[in-house]
Amino acid sequence: MVNMNNDEMEDLLEKFKSEQKALLPKVQLKNNFQIENIRFIAGIDVAYFDMNGKTNGVCCIVVYDLIEKQVIEKVHSYGEIRVPYIAGFLAFREMPLIKDAAKKLTKQVDLYMFDGNGYLHFRHLGIATQASFFLDKPTIGVAKSYLKINGIDFTQPKNKENAYTDIIINKEIYGRALRTRMNVKPIFISCGNWIDLDTTTDIVMKLIDKNSRLPIPVRFADIETRAIRKELLTKKS
Fold first, then answer.
1. Is 0.90 topped by the overall pTM?
2. pLDDT of 146-185, one tens digit each?
3. CA distances from residue 102 to 43, 69, 112, 114, 173 in whole angstroms, order as listed
4. Which helix (H) or strand (E) holds 150?
5. Of the candidates 115, 76, 136, which has an alpha carbon nearest to the alpha carbon of residue 215?
6. Inter-residue contact 80 to 48 (CB < 8 Å)
7. Is 157 helix (H, G, I), strand (E, B) or coil?
8. Contact criterion met (CB below 8 Å) for 189 and 201
């Protein structure tokens, strides 16, 4: 548990808002790559657990070879969480672990996918977007649940593979509700940075198999994170 008084929390909020405001003009919702050059795609996930009265986190990055259809690298980091949970500012809580894990990668990643949002965010700076500036690669946000902004709901896509509806808030497209397979709940995708929404959709769909509604790198990162968390808790018990 990260404890702060009201004044400390207000100061932290203003600092976070200022940092996000400075980053937003640098966000580009267009491709800075050739699609045929995207081969090594990393999924990133962060999970939390309590230990000795403190909140800890573990971040796993799983690199998937789109050509060979196999995982080629896994790395992780873990440690105490020192930033409190504040809705809309998750990136500041998770970035230290993401940075530590990413530094361990030996493979040059072409694109990162996050279990979380990107441009589909109150200030367009979800974890996938904010992390792009450290990773220096195109990023995609893939969320399992919908982040409601300004009270706006999404429209359910048709019940067929690759059906989607755009999420429009204040006359701007924030992301998409995408049904990756028939008879499954939609996922919520958004650009992170340096990629457009149609390419985001195409890449996500290329990484869907019969086992899940989630793209393979994100699903594998989620599985790995849960496994490492269980391992860490077992060692400490």
1. yes
2. 999 999 999 999 999 999 999 999 999 999 999 999 999 9
3. 11, 21, 11, 13, 30
4. none
5. 115
6. no
7. coil
8. yes
